[in-house]
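Supplementary Methods, section 5.1.

A reviewer requested that the exact input to the structure prediction be made available. We therefore reproduce it here, unchanged from the version used in the analyses.
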Amino acid sequence: MPEPQLERATIRVPATSANLGPGFDCIGIAVDLWNETNITAGESCVTISGEGADSLPRDGSNLVAASAHRTFRELGVDPIPLAFDCHNNIPLARGLGSSSAATITGIAAAFAFAGFDITQPETQRSIFVIAADIEGHPDNVSPAVFGGCQIGFNVNTGSADNDWVVSRVKIADELKAVVFVPDFTMATKEARGILPEVVPRSDAVFNVGRAAMLVHALETRQWPLLRHATDDRLHQPQRIEKLFPRFRPIARGALDAGAHGVFLSGAGPTVMALATDRFMTICYEMSENARKAQIVGKALILDISHEGMRIESERERNS
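The structure derived from this sequence is encoded cell-by-cell as follows.
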C-alpha cells in the first residue's frame, strides 16, 4: 500500500564509471562522489549549484525534472509539481555518469512522491529498469542505483521488467579509484558515433577474455591481473586516437606509479586508475603527466561506493 505523499526529500546519487576497459556497455562501478538534490512538493522549478550551474537548463527540459515527469506517467500518476534544488558534484560530460545520476534522481523522486518506499528492493528494481530503458544500457545506472560494481545486460524477452539482468561483483574495500578529470568535455554521442558497427572476431575474442579476467580479478583480489584485464579493443583505441590521444601519458603515469589498471572512464575524457596503495603518488604522477601534455584538470582519490542512491524524507505533517 503506497505511503502518504511526501512534503520534502533529499536524494543522493553517486558518480559511476562505465566499461572499466573491456566491459563495454555492460560493466560499471559506483564511486564516492555524489549529487545531492533537495526536493519539495508544491512548485515546479529547478535550481542548480556546483557542476553545471552555468549551463544546465532550469525548466522542464532539465534531465532531473524530465525524468520525474516521465516516471509519473509510467506509474499512471498525475504529475506532482516538484521543486528540485540540485547540488552537483559530478562533473558534466566527463565519463562519470552525470546524466545517469540526474536521470535516477528524477525517477527516484517520482517514485518517492507517488508514495513508494525507494529503499525497498522491488522499488529499486523498478527505478533501475526505467533508467536502463532511458539510457539504453545498464553500465552507469545499475551501480548508481545498487552501488558497487555491477554487470548488466538486456535479454530482449519482451517482458519489460524481466528484460534487464544485473548482478553485483564483490570488491574489497582496499581498492580505490584515482581519477584525473580534464577540464574539457567529451560528449557521449560523439564518442559513440566514431565506433565501428562491425569488429573483427579477434577483437571480440580479445575483449571476452579481458572482461572475464576483469571480473575474476576483482572478485578474487588478484590485483596484478588488472593491468591486462582493463585492456580493450572495442571502444578505447578509437576514442583515444580520435578524441583524446593525450590519454596515454596520463595512463602511463598511473601505471608507473603503482596503479594496477587504468582505463578511460565511460566515454571519457576522465582517466581512471584502480589501486590498493600509493594513491597520492599515483594522483601526483597523473597530474604531472597531464601538465606536461598541456591538459588542465584535477585529480581525485575516490573510494568505491558500495551503496547506491539514498533518500532522506519528511512526510506530510498532516498525514
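The chain has two domains: 6-170, 176-303. These observations are discussed further in the main text.
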